[in-house]
Specification:
With 114 residues, this protein is mainly beta. The chain is built from no helices and eleven strands.
Length: 114
Amino acid sequence: VQLQASGEGLVQPGGSLRLSCAASARNFSSNPMGWYRQAPGKQRALVALIAVGGTTNYADSVKGRFTISRDNAKNTVYLQMNSLKPEDTAVYYCWTATTSRAYWGQGTQVTVSS
């Protein structure tokens, strides 16, 4: 499985950004998908998950601001980020897992700064 993330950028506080992650998985719709992030000097942490059936789960810090979604026809998962804050600055990683292992994308930089 290969994950290709895109959508990195610099945005002002209060702005929006959408990340995309295209998966090469043969059975994309059968796997959960998610986004993690790692800020400088911190450990990688969960941002949002979307299950096979569409159930979503978010970190408390992004609830109400971020939305994860998936398009199984395009093998793509999205992270819509609104009302961005400087503390959202991090490298964002796409994630998925099969029954045997987890897979990570290459990371995409999101910087929130005025």
